[in-house]
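step 4 of 6: structure.
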Amino acid sequence: EAQVTQNPRYLITVTGKKLTVTCSQNMNHEYMSWYRQDPGLGLRQIYYSMNVEVTDKGDVPEGYKVSRKEKRNFPLILESPSPNQTSLYFCASGRASSLTGELFFGEGSRLTVL
Amino acid sequence: KNQVEQSPQSLIILEGKNCTLQCNYTVSPFSNLRWYKQDTGRGPVSLTIMTFSENTKSNRRYTATLDADTKQSSLHITASQLSDSASYICVVSARSGYSTLTFGKGTMLLVSP
């Protein structure tokens, strides 16, 4: 089954404790991206990657890091989480070669930073 | 600045009724417009993708329209079902591909029995 898998789905952590949210897709997609969704603000892009070893900042990259060492994985790293990073996070993937390709989203990771 | 505005913010309709959601955008240059359905606590799922040359596209009970001249799109839901209760998000791309997607804040639809 084609899917984008995120882990963990739920996480409560404390300020400053490094954490990683993993994202994996099984569709051989070149493009992967991370978004955060906050009430009243909609989805905002954090980082994206057009292919292996290629990453770019989105609209709200501060406080986040990413890496794309393999095509299927695109982890989101919070080196020193702060309460303002409490949010619902989504990973997405798609075929970069397609002009109007469908974007597939994961089920989301709800992060709470105390 | 590229923007996507959706209206209404929320809507309650009775099961079986039709409804229309609106999306206005100022994204330029325009490449394509997407409608997504997002169930509470789940990831968004694509309903339609429309390029500037398409003015109507249907997917089961969902019909999207696009007027590239007025920069407006609508999503019409026919014979609503309880499972249509969700947030509907309009997304516009300024270029081909995904790197310049601008997301609307969504319309929350509640279908009541």
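step 5 of 6: annotate
 - The radius of gyration of chain B is 13 Å.
 - The interface with chain A takes residues 31-32, 34, 41-46, 49, 51, 89, 96-99, 101, 103-106 of chain B (CB under 8 Å).
step 6 of 6: archive
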